[in-house]
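Sample entry (414 residues):
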Amino acid sequence: MNDFVHIHAAPWVVPVDQPPIASGRVALYQNRIFAVDTVVNLVAAYPDAVVVEHPQVALTPPLVNAHIHLELSHLGQLSQGDAPDQFTNWILALLALREKLGATGVHVTAAARKVAEQQYAEGVSVIADIGNTSVGQELTPYFAGNLLAYKEYLGFSNDRLGDNLARLDAELPVTLCSAHAIYSTHKNLLQQLKSRANQNKAVLPIHVAETKAEIEMMDQGRGEMVDFLEQRGFWEKDFLKEVDACKGGTITYLSRIGLLDEHTLCVHVVHASDDEITMLANSGAKVCLCPGSNRFLRVGKAPVKRYLDAGILPALGTDSLASNPEVSIWREMQLLFQDYPELSNADIFAMATRGGAEALAIAGQTGTLTVGTHADVLAVPLHEDRVDSADVLRYLVSTGSGVKPTRIQHTRSL
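Predicted structure, serialized as tokens:
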């Protein structure tokens, strides 16, 4: 066995599920992580192993982008100007630009592929992509990591419910499906999406409590979101009866209609009360934060510390170039570092790795440098000596976009 064990050595190893290891070593065997320890212990245990030195780097797990819309990559001009004065105005601008530039075509796929390749180059091995077209599915074979392409369902009005349910029923079991949001997806469709996901043992992502307008709609039955839906002819007055007993927000509503469990991924979740955070924690539902998109759209700051205090480790997502000037998980970490000084750097890095893997139900495959996970390791350049583990973690979460790690993957001969 020793002939095929390769030990990768670095000044620092950041396993995530334990503190950083100085002069650490990661042993790879048969495309899996075989051991994680110090130089003394591993070299002594496997004296005939091939040892590969990686100077001035930190070995870490790959990153996970738990929420992106690749098919919107060609609409990047939306996030390069001033932020919209209202969330629904951004939606209108997105719809207008998409109508002008097209929702599909060679240019759409090319822009999406460029972003996917950039993600991989920056160390992202898993992407959860949400789309209304087939762009994500088309890119899946070409992405060097694991691209989970979700087909997004929406349809708020009663008159389209039957067609949407029939379309969903015709989907192949292997097709991943997601729900858009409670203000755009009929309750019955939400419940059927969740039932299908549970039957297929799949994660169901859904945008949750992103804006105050959504909460105002839920709590008072009026406001910007209601006006938007009425103007577009999608508003259903019967919805007010549905939410009347759920005063308190989107999470309360989702709990009442049976959508919250350990395989529900709530994306954004900027506006959540203490009671609702407790609901999320008790249900086992996961949370994905998108700090860059939230900052651009000015929808508020998520209560990250309260999630952590409740035992919820959020995942991180970039959302799309249509609402985020820069889609980089390194930048998402940097924004958390800047905006939430109360957070530990270890927690921030865990969100970008283990949090994403847990949210997508693949923690046994990636997210940490743990025995049995895939032999997919990042060698992140440190550029200068780091004096202690706190210094290493601070560097990893504060550097921002532009990080170009080297990938270490097991081969039988090096």
